[in-house]
Amino acid sequence: MTPFRIVMIVLCVLGVVLPFRYFLPWLNANDWDLGAMIEAWHVNDASSGLVWDLTVAAVTLTVWIVWESVTQRRWIGLLAIPATYLIGVSLGLPLYLLLRRA
Asked: From CA 90, how far away is CA 83, in angstroms rounded?
């Protein structure tokens, strides 16, 4: 296994563990109310800015994944799209980079 693959795997793990370390306790305390979570993300201008930053990054990553998958006919990379929207860019990006080198 190459050093690149090891680093991407570590980043994938961190991309799941670090966000969920905060999301899961919050969701448990708030009865898994996703609407309340979205409201909490927009509690002030700083957090709204981060939400929009990550939204643009997620859409950009999705366009890149779809473009490369269609033009190169390498469909495995499409797995990074649900990872991006279900977990976050913190998983989607390193996962895609890992898959595109597979």
From this structure: 9
Residue 102 has pLDDT above 80, yes or no: no
Contact 98, 12 (CB under 8 A): yes
Q: Delimit the domains of the chain by residue range.
A: 3-100
Longest dimension (CA), the chain: 45
pLDDT tens, position by position, 11-49: 999 999 999 999 999 999 999 999 999 999 999 999 999
| CA-to-CA separations, 64 to 21, 24, 47, 57, 98, in angstroms, rounded | 28, 30, 26, 10, 14
Cβ-contact 83, 95 below 8 angstroms = yes
Beta carbons of 83 and 13 less than 8 angstroms apart: no
pTM of the model: 0.91
